[in-house]
Structure prediction request, 85 residues.
Amino acid sequence: MRILRQTSLLVFTLVVLAHPATPSYAQDCNAMVAQIDELLKTVELTDAEKEQVYRLRDQGMEHSSQADTDCSEPLSEALQILQSK
Prediction:
């Protein structure tokens, strides 16, 4: 009985620890997209740079809607382009 209780507690702990990661990724993605959108209003970009930033933004948005992917790579790249201006 004690082993069953310990196993159940272990499984519960693992589920609780793993689950909160998904919402924080979504919040981080949303914050990064908002930052990109604000910078796009004021930063001067060439047409090619604009196209690349929008493509990376869209990729990040797509990744943020999928639980098993990370949006930060394409969104960070878009922010780097914008912040280098």
